[in-house]
Amino acid sequence: MKSRTQIRGRTSRRRFLSGAAMAGAAMIAAPTVVKAQGAVSMRWQSTWPSKDIFHEFALDFAKKVTDMTGGDLKIEVLPAGAVVPAFGLLDAVSQGTLDGGHGVVAYHYGKQAALALWGSGPGFAMDANMLLAWHKYGGGKDLLQKLYQSIGANVVSFLYGPMPTQPLGWFKKPVAKVEDLQGLKFRTVGISIDVFTGLGAAVNALPGGEIVAALDRGLLDAAEFNNASSDRALGFPDVSKICMLQSFHQNAEQFEVLFNKAKYDALPDQMKAIISNASEAASQDMAWKAIDRYSKDYAEMQTVDKVKFYKTPEAILKRQLEVYDEVVKKKAAENPLFKEVIESQIAFAERATRWEQDTLVNRRLAFDHYFGRDGVAKEL
């Protein structure tokens, strides 16, 4: 005769095995249900020519999403102009002509001036990474959504990829003083249009893929785009050998990933979480790749392309700040949303930049020590 303990043990074992079998069946069945729905495919467009490193960044982002979803979300990214012009991306995504896109917020300046505050201007002494910190933790994300709602844009936006300070631009001869900008036919975008206009230039906003041709045909006297790799790939050294480095007109900018809202809302919550995390992973990877590629192209433009780089004079930098302040005051008085964004940025920047300036060591001393005229790096 079996004891009660033996009977209970056998009963418990049967229950365990039965439960394990059911769980196993569920595990086998669950992927079948998911896969039966099929992978989600999206057609995107970037605002960049296919030869630009920016389009490469867009492809990198799409690959990360595809990899992290195990292929359940596949994003095809077409170059600028494949479906719509570069400046038409927001409308195309909002209307569902495209499922999504890759660009910059400043390109939407013509629809709502406050949108350019995510890229144009000095960032109130913040760099691009600090501006992203404000966006995520200082209220910027909610404000951007509010701006898109104000213009009826049916989109979901993710910002990522901090950009280094952009050059003043490419010129026929070095720019020595503010007066040298007077009357120049100059290309820029966003609030920088107002800043360079205030500096005396005749501004024409063009997408990246059209700038070099305009310079070559004499439709522009000078222009800025973004960085050493993009500028070199687009052909700037073929039409100019003078580049002025350092400027406040686009000191803190980042990329934007746009989804059509209806398309995005239809995605499973897990896939939405993957997209959010993929944007942050792509952000850091892009920053690392930029350091590697930009520095190589910067060196090769000097040695191979014979480009001469000059530092923008401090007098021009100071005047940029003064003109920017005038533009901001005027637009804030006209546009309550513009004022709200400015006030939010200033509040965050005052705290964050004070911490940065007090805490971070000036690395110029270390650079001169190792790589200056009497640098010791070669002796180590």
Measured by DSSP, the beta-strand proportion falls in: 5-15%
Terminal CA distance reads 85 Å
Total strands? 11
Order of strands across the main sheet: 2-1-3-10-4
Helix coverage percent of residues? 40-55%
Main sheet characteristics: 5 strands, mixed
pLDDT average, as an integer? 91
Topology:
Elements: H1 4-37, E1 40-46, H2 53-68, E2 73-78, H3 89-95, E3 100-103, H4 128-137, H5 140-150, E4 155-163, E5 169-171, E6 185-187, H6 192-198, E7 202-204, H7 211-216, E8 222-223, H8 228-234, H9 236-239, E9 242-245, E10 253-260, H10 261-265, H11 269-303, E11 308-311, H12 314-334, H13 336-359, H14 364-371
Helix pairs in contact: 2-11, 6-12, 8-11, 12-13
Task: Please provide a written account of the structure.
The chain is an alpha/beta fold and 380 residues long. The chain is 51% helix and 14% strand. The chain has 14 helices and eleven strands. The chain has helices at residues 4-37, 53-68, 89-95, 128-137, 140-150, 192-198, 211-216, 228-234, 236-239, 261-265, 269-303, 314-334, 336-359, 364-371; strands at residues 40-46, 73-78, 100-103, 155-163, 169-171, 185-187, 202-204, 222-223, 242-245, 253-260, 308-311. Strands 2-1-3-10-4 form a five-stranded mixed sheet, with helices on both faces. It has a three-stranded mixed sheet with strand order 5-9-11, with no helix packed on it. It has a three-stranded parallel sheet with strand order 7-6-8, covered by helices on one side. Helix 2 (53-68) runs antiparallel to helix 11 (269-303), helix 6 packs across helix 12 and helix 8 (228-234) crosses helix 11. The longest helix is centred in the C-terminal third of the chain and has 35 residues, at 269-303. It is globular and about 60 Å long. The termini are far apart.
